[in-house]
Amino acid sequence: MSASTASTAGTPSIKRRLIALVYEVFLVLAVNVLAAALWMLVTRNSHAPVAQSGLKLVLFLATGAYFIYNWTASGHTLAMKTWRMCVARADAGAQPYARVPLRNAILRYLLAWGWILPAHVVNVLLGLHDKVSNGIVLAIGVLAWAATALFDRDRQFLHDRLARTRVVVLPSRRVAKAQAEPLEPAA
Mind listing the pLDDT tens digit for each residue in 106-138? Predict the structure, then answer.
């Protein structure tokens, strides 16, 4: 990546990142279905409380492994790649596509639970059990978390700011190919 390309790496719009997040939900769902199926094979589909708690832990770890591996290996998940975005270190300077260290990726994953965990806590504290109430509280929580980017000078979400990461736009294939080709000398 040339220095000129590095300096023009911008932040994707909030709308673009939220659309990619919807796509990401379907991918994570597939990862979790596979993890749950393996867990049920191992536990012989036990419904004991310890097996149910174990399933929750396995799903948490499988989701974390999916995100952390992708962020540290290539900087993006399939959904992020589709929408031409990647996660980079916030302090990368002239190298916006520098790999995210494992520590930052783990911290980003844990902090990203801010999208849904506060809504879950509110539902439990208020004793809400119906799907409509849960959905409304979740929607408010997601919108509140998304709004954190509106107050950030670089339009990054709160979990990126705290984890010292940022999401940047990847150039289109056409632009990347044009930048990789050497310029022909004038005759």
Answer: 999 999 999 999 999 999 999 999 999 999 999
Q: Cβ neighbours of residue 70 under 8 Å, at least 6 residues apart?
A: 76, 77, 78, 80
In 3D space, the residue among 69, 44, 60 whose CA is nearest the CA of residue 116 turns out to be 60
Q: What is the pLDDT of residues 32-45, one digit of tens each?
A: 999 999 999 999 99
pTM above 0.70, yes or no: yes
pLDDT band at 5 (very low <50, low <70, confident <90, very high): very low
SS (H, E, C) the chain: CCHHHHHCCCCCCHHHHHHHHHHHHHHHHHHHHHHHHHHHHHCCCCCCHHHHHHHHHHHHHHHHHHHHHHHHHCCCCHHHHHCCEEEEECCCCCCCCCCCCHHHHHHHHHHHHHHCHHHHHHHHHHCCCCHHHHHHHHHHHHHHHHHHHHHCCCCCCHHHHHHCEEEEECCCHHHHHHHHCCCCCCC
Residue 168 to residue 32: CA distance in whole angstroms: 27
Q: Using CA atoms, how far apart are residues 185 and 80, in angstroms rounded to an integer?
A: 37
